[in-house]
UniProtKB/TrEMBL annotation:
Record's protein name: ABC transporter permease
InterPro entries: AA_ABC_Transporter_Permease (IPR051322), MetI-like (IPR000515), MetI-like_sf (IPR035906)
SUPFAM superfamilies the record matches: MetI-like
Location of the ABC transmembrane type-1 domain: 21-216
Native species: Arthrobacter mobilis
Keywords: Cell membrane, Membrane, Transmembrane, Transmembrane helix, Transport
């Protein structure tokens, strides 16, 4: 049986693959949403409370940065997920499945995303922040109207990187009981030595990552006002009349 025929007759592809794709997308969507919901404010807090920030809080910043973020990031995800099984069972009522795996995925990626958010905010021109403060803006106004909008391209790029990371994490979660493409590759591709299932799973994971990266790059270009301004200048220059006089 050749590879093409195996694609249409292999039960791991015809029956198990569609469900595995949906479970993977479910894990990525749920954990991505909560990672953004928790990680964005956490990253803003890390930047604002740092020494030299809008509201320096050295003790609180050290506790959140060194104890919560750094320790969580230092634990390998496979070990972190196993250790969080009781918490996942407490929150979702189950220790297996994509919804239960989303708990560990969220906790594992929130510190990663928060650090990327902190780095993106750090790149904002300090002069714009100082100008807003001089004009009488409050700290919350500076954060909402200057800091976050100016860092938007970096924030979108950070979210894109996090979503790509979640694709890899979801595969590891599947092996431990989360379902999805990871479980399919392990149960069919590895344990049953099914090369076709393994190849198809890898191809789908690559396509998924490429799609997320393409969408993220397009979103970055769209929210980057510097790129939009440059494009506008080029467009105006193309439509400028030629005022040179030929000799």
């Amino acid at each position: 049986m050749n590879f093409i025929e195996d694609l249409t007759t292999n039960p791991g592809i015809t029956r198990a693959l569609p469900e595995a794709i949906l479970e993977t997308l479910q894990m990525i969507a749920i954990s991505g949403f909560f990672t953004l919901l928790i990680g964005l404010p956490l990253g803003i807090f890390l930047h604002v409370s740092a020494p030299g920030g809008l509201r320096p809080m050295p003790v609180a910043n050290r506790i959140v940065s060194d104890v919560i973020v750094n320790i969580t990031r230092s634990i390998p995800f496979a070990i972190l997920m196993v250790s969080l099984i009781p918490l996942a069972r407490l929150i979702t009522g189950s220790s297996i499945g994509p919804i239960a795996a989303s708990v560990s995925l969220t906790i594992g990626t929130v510190p990663f995303f928060a650090r990327l958010v902190e780095a993106a905010l750090r790149d904002v021109n300090a002069g714009k922040i100082d100008a807003a403060l001089v004009m009488g803006s409050t700290r919350m106004q500076v954060i909402g109207k200057v800091l976050v909008p100016e860092a938007m391209p970096g924030l979108v790029a950070a979210l894109t990187t996090t979503m790509v990371t979640l694709v890899g994490y979801s595969a590891m979660a599947g092996i431990i009981g989360g379902g999805g493409l990871g479980r399919l590759a392990y149960n069919y591709g590895f344990q049953r030595f099914d090369t076709t299932v393994m190849i198809v799973t890898i191809v789908i994971m690559v396509i998924l990552v490429q799609a997320i990266q393409w969408i993220g790059d397009a979103a970055v270009r769209r929210v980057d006002h510097r790129t939009a301004a440059t494009a506008g200048v080029r467009k105006v220059r193309r439509h400028e009349p030629d005022t040179t006089i030929g000799v």
